[in-house]
């Protein structure tokens, strides 16, 4: 028995070392740096001064507000659209593999590259989106250069970006549903709506819970999309700044790593709390 345990620890050792060096240690290091001030080569202990600074910084609260709103809106909307599209493809469309590949392509494409394309689509003067809106006689806002539209632009791009991964995972889950369930439902004259809500959705709960967790975590870490859409900025007057963009700005641009790490710790706690609430909620839903 002891020999087997030694062998098990031997096989686990590379993974444990890897996780410790690249996951656990950075978290502990960030927590320690959040109590220090100065440059990276001259950090000194200053207690809670960094936390006091970020809690009084209006830009930090704007970043948190934007990040929370982005997560609250983009995650459920993106997941709902993904479920609808996955079900339509699975139930109505032939050659499903072609559509799966098409939807998955954005996921393996650089976010920066896609963001540059969307920057032209959202352009207020010659963008495709405003061209369509004008043809429909609808308001055509300045998506990029209007501070009031910055967060809306990020949310729209975020919803579109989330579809690729969600749809492919949902298609795999739909294939794993026992077709006999639908056969029996047809025998009893169940409608398409009844089959969707009484068979498909309950069977998808574990997959939806997984996607919800991944999407929530991803939403709170939003950065690359903002960088790409606004050409390295966070919108006009930092109107589209997010928590991670705030951390990047304080660490890389301003040169205050202690402040950046304090914001990192707060963001880590927010993600932990949001993920905990989401999993408790999905557990309750799964019990019904």
UniProtKB/TrEMBL annotation:
Q: Tell me where the signal peptide lies.
A: none
As for family, the record states: Belongs to the binding-protein-dependent transport system permease family.
Q: What's the source species for this entry?
A: Lactobacillus melliventris
**ABC transmembrane type-1 domain: from which residue to which, for each copy?**
64-278
UniProt-listed InterPro entries: ABC_transporter_permease, MetI-like, MetI-like_sf
| Alphabetical list of SUPFAM superfamilies matching this protein | MetI-like
Report the transmembrane regions from the record: 9-28, 68-90, 102-122, 148-174, 204-223, 258-277
Report which superkingdom the organism of origin falls in. Bacteria
Q: How does it sit in the membrane?
A: Multi-pass membrane protein
- Protein name in UniProt: Sugar ABC transporter permease
